[in-house]
Amino acid sequence: MPKNFLWGGATAANQSEGGWQESNRGPAIVDVLPHGQERLRVMLGELDYRDLPDDSYYPAREAIDHFGHYKEDIALFAQMGFKAYRFSISWSRIFPTGEEKEPNQAGLAYYQDFIKELLKYNIEPIVTICHFDMPLNLIDKYGSWKNRQLIDFYLRYCQVLFETFKDQVKYWITFNEINMLMHLPFMGAGLRFEEGENVLESKYQAAHYELVASARATQLAHQINPDFQLGCMLAAGSVYPYSCKPQDVWQALQMDRENYFFIDVQARGAYPNYALKFFEKQGFNLDIREEDLQVLKEHTVDFISLSYYNSRCVRSDGAGEAGGGNVFASAKNPYLEVSEWGWPIDPLGFRITLNNLYDRYQKPLFVVENGLGARDELVDGQIEDDYRINYLAGHIQAMLEAMEEDGVDILGYTAWGCIDLISATTGEMSKRYGMIYVDKADDGSGSLKRIPKKSFYWYRDLIEKNSHI
């Protein structure tokens, strides 16, 4: 492996940070995502969070209190030998309402200390600017990304980050899993929908404004520091046709395009013809201006980052048992085992996905999420998570083969949930991804004590060896 390969781990403020009222932070999307059966409806934008019962429990308001434990957590990451740590900054900790002219200095000071702590251990900060995150005020007052004004609010936020950390941070990701806007619109982009609204058109309008914001952020970043590396990010996973039946193959291609749509624009600098034809057939009347198209063309990203948890499978007749796959619809693939949550386990699919992305874009890739959600059992103060080790080993081996045998250019690998955190989709703590156990239950009880798992030591040895599994 290259000596400068960025081994590490990944989290996000909305799932780990907590401290929701500390350092003058304002309320954000994650603070109103409840635990329980109504969570999905809120994430979909079908249920207004203001209509939730008063006794609703919001697990991410404390999460694992990464806010208060970051020095301890970063020290543990250093013990594992991390070369990089991908995390996100809470927008409402910098601009509590999103409308302020000047940033919240207490919030900035927190992240200055946070990044200083990473650099103390020679851990490269990988910063996600917006990870399923936004001040609630921008949703309630402006309608979120359905409003063009959000571009300016986002750029003001970006400018503060770029200028504050121009000498400490090299790698930036503009939006986490930008394609999730289409699947969980409120969680992904703060979108809510009114009765009778053309939901699909509204999603694509919001998508356009996010794409313009990303391109303008890339432009701004390179002006402030030409050495900055700006990346986009998608929730990746190639789609298999269920059979060689042409209709299945066509359906798989269509679903892949839906996934690639955002990155086609961010990496290539223009809307692909298939998207323009789709807009035309749907009769969309989108606010896409000539100056928007120019900035998209001139300010493409430097690298493609991705999450990968599983591949997907599709059959054109819609038949067959449904298979879990994050929040994406998928037919059950009879050739794959699944996790406790029904997600297919497919290391070769990871290699296929990496090859597909590199062939398509010819830009460096950065794997910023990959991991296994599972229930861990604490026995005599230890967690023997061989199932997680097996998952990670299989996927890392597939990544190494993509690099060594296929020539795919990959900058680094940051395992998702290097420390246990709140599941984005379910709001559970019991769906654990980490190599560090956090003593907290789904109901919020627990000491928050950190305990390294067996996978902690396995990953430490892998990073030290910097070679094959």
UniProtKB/TrEMBL annotation:
PANTHER family registered for this protein in UniProt: 6-PHOSPHO-BETA-GLUCOSIDASE, GLYCOSYL HYDROLASE
Family recorded in the similarity comment: Belongs to the glycosyl hydrolase 1 family.
PROSITE patterns per UniProt: GLYCOSYL_HYDROL_F1_1, GLYCOSYL_HYDROL_F1_2
Annotated protein name in UniProt: 6-phospho-beta-glucosidase
The entry's keywords: Glycosidase, Hydrolase
Stretches of the chain forming a coiled coil according to its record: none
Top-level taxonomy: Bacteria, Bacillati, Bacillota, Bacilli, Lactobacillales
A Pfam family it matches: Glyco_hydro_1
Organism: Streptococcus oricebi
Active site: 369
